[in-house]
Amino acid sequence: MLLATLFLATVARAEVLVQDVRLWAGPNATRVVLDLSAPVGHKLFTLDHPARVVVDLKPARLGAGLGQMPGGTGLVQAVRGANKADGEARIVLDLASSAKPRSFLVRPEGRYGHRLIIELDNQQSQLRTPVVRANEGERDLVIAIDPGHGGEDPGAIGPRGTYEKDVVLAVSRKLAERINREPGMRAVMTREGDYFLSLRQRVERARLLGADLFVSVHADAFKNPKAHGSSVYVLSSKGATDEAARWLAARENAADLVGGVSLDDKDDLLASVLLDLSQNASIGASLEVGEFVLERLGAVNRLHKASVQQAGFAVLKAPDIPSILVETAFISNHDEEKRLRDKRYQEQLAAALVSGIREYFYRNPPPGTWVAHNRQRAPGPREVVIARGDTLSAIATRYNTSVPALRRHNGLRGDNIRVGQVLTIPGG
């Protein structure tokens, strides 16, 4: 009896507890997260009529604290679970439609412990392609806005408990609204809600949507709470070299396009030359647009770095799209966290970003775009964020208007303007 009792106790200790089940839904995929007490072996398979995904974990059991399974969302209509007699736990996902599942285990990180993640891609979803203007074939500039983190990944967390994923989504939505008000420009979002996307998925979405620029929005964090300021990053040469190797290795398996040219049918030397040309041009354009954006960010916040920085961020590695990563402020800094939560400050950040983006594209318009054809006579109002050293007369000269028109259009009584103030430029 003693030996049997010790054996049963050992088996009980070896069992992994499924502590929680969480769901996150996006427009093209749904993520299911199983919180575990330890890593566990699992088997994943699908069933039809109706569509289901079944997950068997062994040795494991559903924890007593799990309680009721979560309600359905996205592709998942319902979640069911049970402990089987052989020391195996089974979870069944009832699906709204067929989906392609994949799963992987994740080690503890931050506030999360061991997790089994199941990603369900909607096989029926399709990304919208960019709209081309019928008038003389002039197309809109497509700006891909990427709010960092999302879903189970909160990003950095401020002293007051503010999640990075929430504030960057708010800033990104305001940026998209402003871009969509610009003639000849259209914003697309990599995520429009609180759900997770991998770094590769973000880049792939931007490429599939035909983006002319990729802007990833973040809020920085550091162990020193006094760290402050805004920064702009572009891809480093080392990051570009690593990505080039990955693309060249994969080109036999996928007809990826670089600047509209497929690499899958090119020999090694030609493919390498084409990729280098595309990446060098992309990094050069990224540095240029980054300088415009950094200058305008300096009007609404102190700069953490006075020049555009380069790093190997995976989200910047599209070889044929100029890409920048904007650290809007330090969420780990108490004062900057407070500002990031302020809707007015979020509007100022969005205005600064669109001002820099607009200035870059009006100086470097891609051929065939509405901006390239109409930049000298663009109608309607536009906005500028006042930077240090700006004066009304200099702004009037820059935007081909007059000081009295600026005063009248913005309700100014004199010539005094302040850093960070947003002025609307009259059209015409």
Structure description:
This protein folds into three domains: 13-122, Immunoglobulin-like; 138-376, Aminopeptidase (3-Layer(aba) Sandwich), CATH 3.40.630.40; 379-425, Membrane-bound Lytic Murein Transglycosylase D, Chain A. Residues 2-13, 131-135 and 247-261 have low confidence and may be disordered. The longest helix is centred in the middle third of the chain and has 30 residues, at 268-297. Helix 5 (268-297) crosses helix 7 (343-363). The strands form five sheets. The chain has a six-stranded mixed sheet with strand order 12-11-13-18-14-17, with helices on both faces. Strand 7 and strand 8 (89-95) form a beta hairpin. It has helices at residues 2-14, 164-181, 199-208, 237-250, 268-297, 334-340, 343-363, 370-374, 392-398, 403-410; strands at 16-25, 29-36, 41-47, 52-58, 60-62, 71-73, 76-83, 89-95, 99-106, 114-122, 141-147, 185-189, 213-220, 231-235, 257-258, 261-262, 309-311, 323-330, 382-385, 422-425. 31% of the residues lie in helices and 28% in strands. The N and C termini lie far apart (93 Å).
